[in-house]
């Protein structure tokens, strides 16, 4: 990107911005995951069946998927900061409604609404990262930013069961609604100011002046070679990631014969290595001369052998299970920092939100379809190993797709310059 400084050194403001984004996206994961933690208690209190409780999970993801793309497109038009604040406020309102649910259908509707208001979150946050961090800082920032996805599960389990047990599940819902309200002021404050890497086009800031129709914006995104390749990557690799993650505990217990407690400890290590690997991957990319897509492909190539190793873990050998679970955490998540960063960097600059939203649709589709595929394979073959081995092929498709990405859009570079190179440009409040 033209005139961007190549320094890796961060300013205090960048740290503040990333902290605000991390909290905003953490909130999204806390509110979506709290149902899984409270579901046994609510099912019992409201006389829901297991199937009805599971539909609450599905309702969220249906709503989320619906607004992923249009939310990203809207973020390109109104500004990423505004959309981040909207998702935080929306999470507060939707969770408050969950505390007042009176029956199955009202709760299902509120979970759907929660999904709708959460859909634009990733596109908006990645748009802010694109505006506040240079090309030599972005992957590290994204790696740190995405750690909140794993941390959200930890936070939920720290407070929700205890509050529910002592004060009731409705109180746990209201506490969850209070969290976004508490951090809203900080998020709004941290994201204030003139982003140093907000690009301008024809002397008008892109984020404030995208007047193109939604159809034109979408057409530009879906006809972009790099965007389509990232979509294929997301469908295959993200699907494999969450498919294996969702079935791992059951595999450890049912196939390898370990206890539920042991399975939880093993998967805790999986979570730890996933968080560490995402940060390391971003740092390595920002400090390496290797192109982002090639490094991402190398990291993704690790995923397939780690799935195979995990699937072939010998029964009764806890040491090997820990080893392969830790390796699987690296293989399943290490590439995420770079593929998310590529979504911001390889597409037309004025369509960052649209592109991240479009790619995220395929990520969500993979997250839906892969667990279903694993379940179908398990039913048909009766073998966890066979099912995992089939799934292990999909990251290879993502690996090949990444090899064909072309970084550096010359047309985009010619038409955009850094705000810092236009000192006389009047700042637009955003």
UniProtKB/TrEMBL annotation:
Gene3D superfamilies: MFS general substrate transporter like domains. It comes from Oenococcus sicerae. Residues 17-410 form the Major facilitator superfamily (MFS) profile domain. It is found in: Cell membrane. One of its GO terms (molecular function) is glucose 6-phosphate:phosphate antiporter activity. It comes from the Bacteria. The chain crosses the membrane at residues 15-35, 55-76, 83-102, 108-129, 141-160, 172-191, 227-244, 250-283, 295-313, 319-343, 355-378, 384-405. GO terms for cellular component: plasma membrane. SUPFAM superfamilies: MFS general substrate transporter. It is a multi-pass membrane protein. Keywords: Membrane, Transmembrane, Transmembrane helix, Transport. GO terms for biological process: phosphate ion transmembrane transport. Pfam families: MFS_1 (PF07690). This is MFS transporter. Its main location: membrane.
